Amino acid sequence: MLALLFYGMAGTAYAQRVYANSFNSSTDVDLGCVLVVCGSVNNGGNAVSPTQIAANNPSTIVSPLVLSATMQNVRFTGANALPSYVTPVMVKLKMNASLLSLINSISLQRTNGNVSTPVGTEYSAGYLLDLLGIGGVGQQELTVILPVVGSAQANDGIRVKVGSAVSLGLSASLYYAYYIIPPTVTSATLNLCGNVAGSFTISNFQSGYTYKLYTAAVDGTEVSGVSTTTNTLAIPGTLAAGTYYLEARETNTYPSARTPVTIVRSTLPDAPTIPNVTTCAGTSATLTVSSPVAGISYRWYTAASGGTALTTANSYTISNPTTTTTYYVEGYNATTGCISASRTAVTLTVNPLPAAPAIPNVTTCAGTSATLTISSPVGGTTYNWYTVSTGGTSVNTGPTYTISNPATTTTYYVEAVSAGCISASRTAVTLTVNPLPAAPTVPGKATCIGTSTTLSVSSPVAGATYRWYTTSTGGTSFFTGTDYTITNPAVTVTYYVEASNAGCVSTSRTAVTLTVNPLPVAPTVPNTATCSGTSVLLSVSSPVAGIIYRWYTSAGGGTVLNTGTNYIISNPTVTTTYYVEAFNETTGCTSLTRTAVTLTINPLPSVTLSPSPRICEGDLNASLPFVVANGGNQYKITWDPGTPVSFQNVTNWTNLTGNSITVSVPGNASYGVYTGKVSIYNSVNGCEGSLQSFSINIYPAQGKTHLTIQNIIN
Q: Which of 97, 307, 435, 513 is positioned for an S-S bond with 140, CB 3.0–4.6 A?
């Protein structure tokens, strides 16, 4: 920007403005102002006060009446700092229109720092003759666009200087100084393919602003036809690639600093070359780009335009194709986002598969040759024979296949081949070979008396029949099948089994023995009684070596509680019957029945002591009332710790009589409360109950004084 421009301006508020927010003033005195009137700045803070700016109240700069000048400096600081040293700054001034001829007495200059050091050129009135909006009488408001300084010169403020005008007392009003926030875009780089048009989106767009594109950050040339008053700046396809600069202009007049934006135009990739391919129905085929270009991906479609990509690779494999199909492929540069101008058509031709052949199964005997033959073979079709349903190596080619001296039943698989295509499946054809069966293998078994069991032929041959006898030769078969179940066997028996297949019988019968083992005897376990909560041991009487004893809570079934000759029951509380069986681990046989053994739980005796006896000093006995339960018939007494030794414990079980216990009291026992505990015992079942506490209250004897009075004051 090569000139200092002044513009008339209405008092509209704009959201993109950032105002100067700091000021100072000074007087430049040439001859001194001791005897004359000095210049002054009145209400200097108005020019940086948001409230006064909004109210349109300026500061006033009055020149001195000597050859000197008055200056007001405003700065952009903190959050209001200039975004760059080349940011255009607008200054709103007002002066008397009748004094416009003295405009040379007003100048503007950029400054830097707290002391407002001048920076760059000072622009004076002679530079401001071509004013806009001049006319009329009275005051004239002017908005000045102060040119930028070199990018290397730091600046953060503006100085407005009003000089003396031959004793006229020239004055000017400074309303404010501001800059416009530079535009920002969502992406500073616009990647375009070829001569495609595009657009930048202005993320801090503000209505009332015009956005223009220039060829340089300062000055430069406006790009013709590229401007907008919306948030979208359209870029025509004719605009060359390069870096441009985006400027916001308030009311299409007051400029912001410019924001660099870059237009990148990338070359379109070439449409690929892809040869056509022929395949068979159901056979996967791969279409491949010839000489693919590094950095270019290839997108495959079923449509010449639009649609969704099937894959993005140099090749595309079609699994199990059924019909001839044309695909379309475009080149795509992921780095630039550019796509080839057209898609290449490539055709996959799919030939139909021949039908799988029909072949009847054949049955023969071991050692007898047999021929397998295709029914109604098709001319021009080749038939390949295999021993596996898929893969493998062909064992024969032709409409027939003769197998010499077959030994085992075998399934062969036949496919048809026509025009290079193979039938979708192979036809299975079975040559059944009936062998002279070998004598079967039937393992013997052992079981327990009364336990049913099954004897089974090991690895029975498919198609063979197995007959069971009680003699090694001759006789009549009593069962036919691979598995023979003997119900409730009682004695050891040997059976004989032969195999037959297609009228052929094994040369011998196989002997198989069923060994029947006796059952172990149910154990003897004596019943036991114990006190509630007292662990007890139940034991098998005269246990037999080699026999395991298993304990249950039920006469049949249930879960094993314990294994062994002894069973400890901890803290039993109720009478319970247990059941014990004998198990021979060697034979696997279990006793026919379980032995019931009852554990009787005797309840613990208890005693209730009430009420506590009361006696006088000198009494030798106290009567302790009681009520017993659960057969308690004897007792012991233990005095609590701290009781005088003259109180004797009852350490032997003593029979209870009547309904109270006579407690011996020493004759020298003084008055007070004495406590102890009573144990209760059932001598019939030997169960002892829990301790019960009691107390004896001894009162002073009649006629004895036990009152002591101390520290009596008359």
A: 97
Is the pLDDT assigned to residue 147 strictly greater than 80? Answer: no
pLDDT at res. 434: 78
Tell me if 90 is assigned to some domain. yes
Asked if residue 2 has pLDDT above 50, the reply is no
CB 372 within 8 A of CB 410: no
Other CB atoms within a 10 A radius of the CB of residue 572 amount to 18
Of 517, 544, 559, which marks where a domain is finished?
517
| Domain co-membership, 36 together with 139 | yes
Structural domain harbouring 561 = 528-602
Check whether residue 591 and residue 534 sit in a common domain: yes
Whether 187 contacts 106, CB under 8 Å: no
Do 149 and 35 fall into the same domain?
A: yes
**Same structural domain, 453 and 579:** no
Q: pLDDT digit string (tens) for 639-678?
A: 999 888 789 999 999 999 999 999 999 988 899 999 999 9
Query: In this prediction, what percent of the chain has a pLDDT beyond 90?
Result: 70
Q: Are 76 and 48 in contact (CB under 8 A)?
A: no
Residues 35 and 157 in one domain: yes
CATH code where residue 32 lies: 2.60.120
Strands (E), 352-409: 362-365, 370-373, 382-386, 396-397, 400-403
The span from the CA of 149 to the CA of 87, in Å, is 9
| Domains: count for the chain | 7
Q: In sequence order, what are the residues at sequence separation of 6 or more whose Cβ sits closer than 8 angstroms to the Cβ of residue 124?
A: 104, 106, 107
Lowest mean pLDDT across 124-138, 164-178, 205-219, 397-411: 124-138
Residue 616 and residue 671: Cα distance in Å, rounded? 7
- Calpha distance 229→252 (Å, rounded): 9
Nearest to 13 by CA among 57, 77, 56, 59: 56
Over 60: is that where the pLDDT of 10 sits? no
Neighbours of 268 (CB within 10 A): 17
Q: What are phi and psi of 498, to 5 degrees?
A: -120, 160
Beta strand pairing call for 547-552 and 370-373: unpaired
Whether the CB-CB separation of 26 and 71 falls below 8 Å is answered with yes
**290 close to 275: Cβ distance less than 8 angstroms:** yes
> Quick one: 98 exposed, middle or buried, by C-beta within 10 A (0-12, 13-18, 19+)?
exposed
Greater confidence, 458 or 95?
458
Q: How confident is the model at residue 145 (pLDDT cuts 50, 70, 90)?
A: low
| Whole-number Cα distances in Å, 162 to 52, 174, 177, 412 | 22, 11, 16, 115
Domain with 346 in it: what CATH number?
2.60.40
In a domain, 580, yes or no: yes
